[in-house]
Write a structure and sequence with these properties.
single chain; 16 strands; globular; four-stranded antiparallel sheet; 196 residues; mainly beta; disordered N terminus
């Protein structure tokens, strides 16, 4: 099992071979190069907000920290992770996903945001798409972003041209769309009443 996020003000970077929960009191990195991976911490760091979602590219961990916005942690030295400043606290970040050098952010009432992370520690804005609801989660596949947009339902956003995302279609979800997973032409959406 790999734990990716903790809601205790930090992010836990860990691999655990034992299925019992680890102490999730802050961000932590664990060496996964040994088999089976041991339970133990390499390092930890406190970040503002809640670690709702994490995407990792090379030596950068991008953290959707809820109302604390996007946070970036330098994990080049796993035993000494470091917060990269400036963070982007101005917009809520519920979910982050990476596709190549692009970071997609479900940003609640700010909609879908796309940033270029070619420079891993200095994301550059590419585009923002205002969505009809509140972007809570997203999945990326085949040139589309599938956005769980709360009362806006499931949005299918064409991101073939990342600088000009366009809503290509939508599906109403009666109890709101809060989470989404996508694989091979199938999107599964979680609603407010815990239905799929």
């Amino acid at each position: 099992r790999v734990n990716a996020a903790a809601h205790s003000g930090g992010v836990l970077l860990t691999g655990i071979s034992d299925p019992t929960p680890a102490n999730l009191d802050g961000p932590t990195a664990i060496d996964l190069t040994v088999t089976p991976p041991p339970v133990g911490r390499l390092g930890s760091i406190h970040v503002s907000g809640q670690g709702r979602s994490i995407a990792v590219a090379n030596d950068a961990a991008y953290i959707a920290a809820g109302s604390a916005g996007l946070r970036i942690v330098d994990v080049r030295l796993p035993n000494q992770p470091a917060t990269v400043q400036p963070a982007e606290p101005s917009v809520t970040a519920h979910t982050v996903r990476l596709s190549g050098n692009l970071l997609y952010i479900a940003s609640a009432d700010a909609g879908l945001r796309i940033a270029d992370v070619t420079d891993r520690f200095a994301p550059q804005p590419v585009a923002t798409l205002d969505t009809p609801g509140s972007a809570r989660d997203l999945a990326i596949g085949n040139g589309f972003a599938y956005v769980a947009d709360e009362d806006g339902g499931l949005l299918v956003v064409d991101v073939h041209t990342p600088g000009a995302p366009v809503i290509a279609g939508s599906v109403a979800i009666p109890d709101g769309a809060y989470s989404v997973a996508y694989r091979a032409g199938l999107a599964v959406v979680g609603s407010d009443l815990h239905d799929l």
